[in-house]
């Protein structure tokens, strides 16, 4: 991508577009996360205000205004962010990711996507730890890990839960049965106190719902609990008889032991990295991954977008000698 720059400190500008006053429609019912929607709209409003010379953008105008954007408008805007506002590349990447996601939705309605071939800027970070364990590795662990008692059975459900929710270690060991909620046909895990100190809700994948339900039925049958008394019990206790809380050290040790089945030295946080990288590889954008992981700052999430780029390069290994 060639940015339009006059000299080191000046950005090329052109006459701003004039918007037409006609009936418009909105697309913003498509985003489920309120925080994601708020961020997307902020970035989009800033972008359109730049292109249309600071005019007051009305909600019912947005789709038509977006439809009239060109690749040159995008280049001007990115130059403005980098050279006038002097934003870091990591911050610009966050904005690009949001706008790419919005335009991807409009593409379904035959709207030209000027962000389609805009790539994120490269940033230098160590990705070794991010790529330490993959989805295929996790499947191999589950296939090779022998389950001969209830704690080993518990360990497999812990691994499923870490991967399919991206939960942090402390969040996982705090989960009680009452934190598993159902609304209509959807299930969630309520995290009462996340790293940010706020409540969060993790949507549950259908595979994980089935695994947890089977696990719960097993605990019910063996220990003869009823629905009322089980609510306060830890989902993954250290001792089933006493229902004592699992410690972080114990969680770390059991994940390490499971990793050894395929000669990997891994931690619970490596599993969190694995789902984030998998989401990126399957098309989730930066803000979606940020919300799923519960990051308070998108800068922390950007490394997974970079990890996807590195993973994409692995295709060259499939070229025959």
What features would you describe in this structure?
- The model is unreliable at 1-15 and 18-32 (pLDDT under 50).
- The strands form three sheets. A three-stranded antiparallel β-sheet has the order 3-4-5, with no helix packed on it. A two-stranded antiparallel ribbon has the order 1-2. A two-stranded antiparallel sheet has the order 6-7.
- The chain is elongated, with a radius of gyration of 24 Å.
- The chain has helices at residues 34-51, 62-67, 71-84, 89-107, 135-144, 150-165, 169-174, 206-223, 227-230, 248-259, 268-281, 286-293, 298-312; strands at 5-7, 10-11, 180-183, 186-191, 200-203, 237-239, 244-245.
- With 321 residues, it is mainly alpha-helical.
- The protein has 13 helices and seven strands.
């Amino acid at each position: 991508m060639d940015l339009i720059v006059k000299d080191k400190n000046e950005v090329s500008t052109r006459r701003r577009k004039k918007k037409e006053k006609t009936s418009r429609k909105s697309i913003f019912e498509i985003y489920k996360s309120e925080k994601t929607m708020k961020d997307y709209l902020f970035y989009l409003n800033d972008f359109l205000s730049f292109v249309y010379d600071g005019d007051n953008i009305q909600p019912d105008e947005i789709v038509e205004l977006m439809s009239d954007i060109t690749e040159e408008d995008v280049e001007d805007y990115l130059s403005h962010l980098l050279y006038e506002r002097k934003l870091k590349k990591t911050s610009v990447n966050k904005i690009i990711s949001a706008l790419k996601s919005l335009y991807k939705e409009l593409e379904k309605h035959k709207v030209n996507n000027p962000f389609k071939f805009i790539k994120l800027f490269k940033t230098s970070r160590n990705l070794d730890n991010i790529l330490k364990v993959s989805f295929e590795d996790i499947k191999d662990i589950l296939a090779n890990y022998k389950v001969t008692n209830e704690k080993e059975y518990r360990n497999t459900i812990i691994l499923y839960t870490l991967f399919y929710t991206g939960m942090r270690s402390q969040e996982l060991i705090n989960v009680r049965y009452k934190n598993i909620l159902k609304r209509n046909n959807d299930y969630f895990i309520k995290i009462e106190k996340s790293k940010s100190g706020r409540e969060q809700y993790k949507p549950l994948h259908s595979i994980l719902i089935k695994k947890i339900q089977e696990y719960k039925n097993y605990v019910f049958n063996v220990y003869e609990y009823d629905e009322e008394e089980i609510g306060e019990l830890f989902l993954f206790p250290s001792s089933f008889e006493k229902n004592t809380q699992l410690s972080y050290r114990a969680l770390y040790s059991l994940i390490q032991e499971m990793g050894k089945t395929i000669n990997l030295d891994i931690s619970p946080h490596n599993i969190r990295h694995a789902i984030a990288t998998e989401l990126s590889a399957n098309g989730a954008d930066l803000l979606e991954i940020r919300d799923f992981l519960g990051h308070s700052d998108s800068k922390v999430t950007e490394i997974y977008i970079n990890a996807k780029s590195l993973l994409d390069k692995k295709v060259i290994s499939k070229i025959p000698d």
